[in-house]
């Protein structure tokens, strides 16, 4: 099962990805985690990424695509994977399609968590308060100003993926405003129909 989870920041993608990992025994592939792992492992692509990051620059799509491709070839991805935070742009979405086709693979589904933007701000503030109360570190992006900027970036760059995957027949939508358990149940209903 090869999945992409879409939705704005705070929609619950990470929470649902964790549940999918447990239920389906497939890895969640986060580009940030993959970049750090490739750098730590000293792979050829990891060395290229490290040089760019050490220079304080953003890692190019080519490097990110190569790292994702490398990661998908690992044995734990044989049964499938969940792409989290990637693709973020239409250019990256095209690259994912080409990469998977080159491996004789295809996406099984793209699940979009549909949410109310105003309610998301409340979620983010609550997440920060709960983390602080539990003595856990508060994410630096868990404040209203940073969140607004992330939301604008999402709508500018990532939201167009909804139409892209809808046109390909891959897109399924789930009410991301429901309870965590209800969202999980709806995602499982979608996946059982594949």
Would you kindly provide a written description of the structure presented here, covering whatever features stand out?
The chain is an alpha/beta fold and 194 residues long. The chain has helices spanning 13-24, 31-41, 44-54, 61-72, 90-102, 117-133, 144-158, 161-167, 180-192, and strands spanning 2-6, 28-30, 81-84, 109-114, 171-175. The longest helix has 17 residues, at 117-133. The termini are close together.
Strand order of the largest sheet: 2-3-1-4-5
Largest beta-sheet characterization: 5 strands, parallel
As a whole number of angstroms, the C-alpha radius of gyration is 17 Å
Q: Choose one word for the global shape.
A: globular
Amino- and carboxy-terminal Cα gap: 9 Å
Write the element-wise H/E pattern from the N-terminal end onward. Answer: EHEHHHEHEHHHEH
Strand content: 5-15%
Helix fraction, binned, reads 55-70%
Briefly say what this structure is.
The protein has nine helices and five strands; from the N terminus they run βαβαααβαβαααβα.
Brief descriptors of the model:
single chain, 194 residues, alpha/beta, 5-stranded parallel sheet, 9 helices, 12% strand
List the helices and strands and how they pair.
Layout: E1 2-6, H1 13-24, E2 28-30, H2 31-41, H3 44-54, H4 61-72, E3 81-84, H5 90-102, E4 109-114, H6 117-133, H7 144-158, H8 161-167, E5 171-175, H9 180-192
Parallel strand pairs: 1-3, 1-4, 2-3, 4-5
